[in-house]
Structures are given as C-alpha cells and as structure tokens.
Amino acid sequence: MGLDELYREVIIDHYRNPRHRAPLEQVDAHGEGNNPLCGDRIELDLALEGDDVVGISVRGQGCSISQASASMMSEAVVGKSRDEVAALADDFRRMMSSDDVIDEDRPGSVLGDLEALRGVRRFPVRIKCANLAWATLDQALTDDSSPATSE
Ligand code: ZN
Q: Cα(50) to centroid of ligand 1, in Å?
C-alpha cells in the first residue's frame, strides 16, 4: 500500500468513525468554528484540569477533511497541557503550510494520524478545511467569544 493510499484510509476511517463525539460531564471551555468556503462547522467542548486538557467532545458537519481533522485533533490533544497543545497546533500548521521538517523529538510534537493530512496542502482551498478544528480549539482555549474561522 502506498503512502497516499494509507493516508487516504486513515482520513476515511476518522471521517466515518469520528473519535470523541460523546458529550462531556464537565465542560470548562467551548469553541465554535465554521469555514464558509466549504460549509464546514465544528463545535467542541473541553474539560480542563489545571493546565491540562483532560477531555474533549467534538461535533461537526462538513467535508471529510474538516471532520477527519477534527477527529484526529481530538485524539492528539487529550492528556496534553496547554503548552503541548500549542506546540502541536504549531507543528500542524507548519506541516500544512510548508515543507519544514517537524522536530519529532520536541515534547508534544508527535503528529500521529494528523500526518495523514499532509497531502491536503497540495489543495490550498482544503487547507482551510483541515485547519478549522485547530482554529476552533484555539478559540476554546483563549475564551475568545467570536466564532472561529479558518482564515
Ligand atoms: Zn471542507
């Protein structure tokens, strides 16, 4: 199986079986985002303990890239501190916008399944779809009350 095909399967799996859909008992932060270009919408709740993201619930609708990205993001951030989440978001945006090599040794920088979205950067319009989950997460973590967009 080629890498492109493997990546496609990972994306389809997350789209069909999105992770962390169940509502949280404890909600400490909430984010909403939309990508008007594609009609993608994401809503998420976070449970926080001190500086750590201990739970996430994601709901959304839209294209496979936006929803798969949200599912992958949810798996990647649970159990991480705000700083680690910020580093991960940084790595993800760098991966989507350039050919920079990601420093795998930096704590919190292992992208895991998110690597499957690397191919999306060949399609500039879809990069906004992939980034929406992270913009929404940012919004939840910064308590910015205006809805996030992936601009
Ligand atoms: Zn989309």
A: 33
